[in-house]
Amino acid sequence: MQTEAPIADLNAENLRRAAIDRSVKGPVLFLFTNAAFWLMASTLLGFLSAVKLVSPHFIDFSFLTYGRIQPAHLLALVYGWGIQAGMGVALWLMARRTAVELKGGQATLITLGVIWNIAVTVGIVSVLAGGSTSLEWLEFPASVATVLLIVFLVFAFRIVSMAAKPQREGGFQVSTWYIVGACFWFPWVFATATGLLHHVELGALGAGINAWFVHGVILLFFVPIGIGSAYYFIPKITGHPTHSAQLAQMGFWTLAIFGGWTGMQRFMGGPIPGWMPAVGALAGVLLLIPVGIVGLNHHLTTLGSHKLVGTSPTLRFTFVGALFYPISGVLLALISAFWSGSTMQFTHAWYGYQIVVVYGFFSMCVFGAIYYIVPRLAGCEWLSVRLIRNHFWFSVYGIGTIVVTSVLGGFQQGAVMNDPGQWDVNFLAIATHSYIYVVARALAWLFILWSNSWFLVHLMLMVAGLGRRSSAPTLLTHDHEHEELPLTEGAKA
Amino acid sequence: MTDFRTFVLKLMASFGLPWLLLIIVPSIQYQGLKPLPYDKEKGDELDSAYSYPLMPIVNQQGEKIYAAEGCVQCHSQMVRAAPLALDAWRKGWGQDQGARAAEPVRTTELRDYFGEKHSFLGVIRNGPDLANAGYRFENRTQVHLHLYEPQVVNGNYWQVMPSYRHLYQVRKIQGQGSAAALPLAGTKYEPKEGYEVVPTQEAEQLVSYILSLKKDYPIPGAAKAVAAAPAKK
Question: Interhelix angle for A4-54 vs A84-98, to 10°?
Fold first, then answer.
C-alpha cells in the first residue's frame, strides 16, 4: 500500500537530483560537446594516417606526413576527446554520487574548458606544423602541457572536494574511489613526465619514463574513469547492487598498486637497466588480477539482466565497454610478458592496445554515460533509436576490426622481424606484409567516422534542447515494458 | 572524513612507491652516470685519453628536425639483446653492411644515449632501426636522396616512407649551379629544365644527425669490443 510519505520522499529526492544536475549542466555539456568534436577530428586523422602507411603520397602535404598526423590523431583522441569527456563524466558522477551541488564557479569551469580546448588546438596545430617534440602522447610544446595541467587540476580539485564532504550516507563508494584516484593520478603522472622530460637530460631513460607515462595515463586515468562509470551505471540500470563490495575493493587496490609500475617493458631488451622493463612486464601481467576481479564483479552484477542490455542504450554501451576491459588486460599482458612481448614489440600491436583501451573500453563506457547524463541535463530525450543503434554497431564493428587487425598484423610483423630465416630480407618487405591489415584499419576508421558523425549531430541537437519532449526515455526497442526504469534508480543510487 | 583521508593516504602510498623507485631515484642516479675511460692494459684499442661513449655523440640540431618530423613513429633506435630478438643479426643494422656479419651488433646500452635529452627508442617499426644508421650510407647525397624521395633510392613502387620534399628547395640554376644540388637527372623526380633541387639548412642538419647515429662504440674492458672498434668514419 502506498502511503503519502514515500511519495513525498521520492519527490524530494527527484527535486534534489534535478538541482544537482542543474548545478553541473553548463560545464558538463560544454565538455561533452567539445569532446565529441575532437573525437571526429581524431577519427578523421586516424583514417588519414592509416592510408598514409600504405600510400604516403595520398594528399601530399608536409603537414600531413605520417610522422605528424599519427601523433596528432592520438593527441586528439587522448586530450581532445578522452580526458575532456572523462572530466565531464567524473564531474557529473561525483556530484550525483555524493549529492553535492556544484556551488558557484560554473562560469570559471566553462572558461577553463575553453582554455583546455585552445591548448589542445595549439598543441595539435604545432605538431602538424612541424613543432613536435616526438615524446609519445606529449608531442605538444611544454607550455601547452602546463596549461593542460592547470586546467585539469582545477577540475580535479572541484571533483575531489565533493568526495571529501559527501552529503549522503555511503556517498563515497566504489565508483567514486576510481574517480578520486584518477583525479590524483593523472596530474601526478603528467606533471612528473612533462617536468622530467622537458627539463632534465635523461637519454634512453627518458624514453622509458615516456612509456611509463603513457601506461600511467591509460591505467590510472582512462581505466579508472571507465571502471568508475561502469560501476555506477551497471547497478543503476540493472537494478542490482554491485555484486560484491569485497571484490570491488580488491579490484581497486590491486590496480592502484600495480598500475604505477608498468610501462618500461616497451623497451625490453634495450638500453634501460634490465630490472625496469622486468618490473614493468611483471606488473603488466599482474594487472590481470584487477581485470579479472572487476570483470567478474560486473559479470555477476549483470547476470540475469541481459535483456536490458538490448534495450537501454546506456547499459548496452557500458556493457560492451566493460567487455573490452578484459580484452585490453589480456592484450597488455601479452605485449608485456617477455615471451610474447618480444614478438609484439615495436609492431602494430601497440597501436591496437592503445585503441582497445582508449576507444574500445574507455570511450564505450563514456558513450554509455553520455546517453544517460545528457537527457537529464538538457531536459529532453534522445531523438532517434536508429541513430543510437547506428552509433553502437558501427563503433563496435569498427573498433573490433582495428583491434583484431592491429594485433594480428603486429604479430605477423614481429614474427617476420624475429625470424632467423629472414635476417637479410629488405625491411620494406616486412612493412608490405602488414598492408592488408592497415587497409582494414583505414576502412574501420571510416565506419567509425560514419557512426561518430551521427553521434555528434545527435548530441548537438540534444544540447540545443531540440530533443524529444517526453517523460519516457529513448530505449532501443518499441515495447514499453521498461518505461518505469528511471523511477527505480532511487534505491540503487 | 577520516575515511576519505586514509583513502587518499593509501592512494599516495600505493602510487608514490613506484613513482619514487622507478622514476625519481633512477632519474637522479642517471645524472651521476659518467663516461667510462678506455684502458689499453685491459685490451681496449684506445687509451685512457678517450672514454666511452666518444663525445659528442649525435648532432643536436638535426635531432630537433628528427623530432619535429616524427621520424620516431616508424624508426626505432635500439638494438635488442640477442636472446630476445633477432635485431643484432639483421642485415645492415650494425657497422658491417656487407654479407652476413661475423659478429652480432652490440646491444645498445644506457651510455650510448649520452647527450640526448630524451632518446627516440621507437614506437612501431614501419621502417628499419636507425641506431647505427651512420654506417648505412656512403655519403651525404645518398641520405638526401632518400629523404627527398625514397622511391628514387628504392626503385620500388610500394614505398612506405613519405617524401620530405619540404626540406628541399627547388630553385633556378644560377651560373654553374649549386654543388649541393641533388643528382635527380634521369629519375621521375627530375626538376624542370633550368631548375635544381638543393637541401635547406634543416635537411643538412637532419642528414648530419642520421650520419652521426653510431651506437656501437666499444665498451671499455669488453673483450669483443676490440674487434668492433669504430674504425670507419
Answer: 170
φ/ψ of A47, rounded to 5, equals -60, -50
Residues A49-66 pLDDT 10s: 999 998 888 888 889 999
8 Å CB contact between B107 and B81: yes
Query: Distance between CA atoms of A33 and A26, rounded to whole angstroms?
Result: 11
Chain B contacts of A267, Cβ < 8 Å?
78, 121-122
DSSP summary character for residue B105: P
Cβ–Cβ contacts within 10 Å for residue A315, how many? 27
Degrees (nearest 5) of the Cα angle A52, A56, A60?
A: 100
CATH topology for B53-174+181-217 is Cytochrome Bc1 Complex; Chain D, domain 2 (1.10.760)
> What is the CA B32 to chain-centroid distance, rounded?
24
Q: Which residues of A touch B70 (CB under 8 A)?
A: 65-68, 70-71, 127, 132, 134, 139
Distance CA A442, CA A11 (A): 51
Q: Amino acid identity, residue B86? A: L
The CB density around residue A178, as the number of other CB atoms within 10 Å, is 28
Rounded CA separation A303/A321 (Å): 16
**Which 8-state DSSP code applies to residue B191?**
P
Picking from B208, B218, B233, the residue whose alpha carbon sits closest to that of residue B50 is B218
The structural domains of chain A, ordered by start, are 4-492 (1.20.210.10)
- Answer whether A339 touches B (CB < 8 Å): no
3-state SS class at A110: helix
Asked whether the CA dihedral B56, B62, B68, B71 is positive or negative, the reply is negative
DSSP SS3 for B198: strand
- Give the residue from chain B lying closest to A261, CA to CA: B18
* A112-131 per-position pLDDT tens digit: 999 999 999 999 999 999 99
**Who among B4, B14, B70 is closest to A70 (CB)?**
B70
Report the alpha-carbon distance of residue A197 to residue B67 in Å, rounded.
Answer: 14
List, for residues B49-73, the tens digit of each pLDDT value.
Answer: 888 887 667 888 999 999 999 999 9
| Chain B positions in Cβ-Cβ contact with residue A427 (cut-off 8 Å) | 125, 127-128
The number of CA neighbours under 13 Å toward the Cβ of A157 is 8
Q: What is the ipTM of this complex?
A: 0.92
Residue B192, pLDDT above cutoff 70: yes
Q: Are A291 and A325 in contact (CB under 8 A)?
A: yes
Contact A94, A224 (CB under 8 A): no
Which residue, chain included where needed, has cell 592496445? A353
Instruction: Identify any residues that bridge with B195 across adjacent strands, giving them in sequence order.
Output: B172
Q: Is A196 left (phi over 0), alpha (psi -120 to 50) or beta?
A: alpha
Task: Please give the grid coordinates belonging to residue A423.
Answer: 635476417
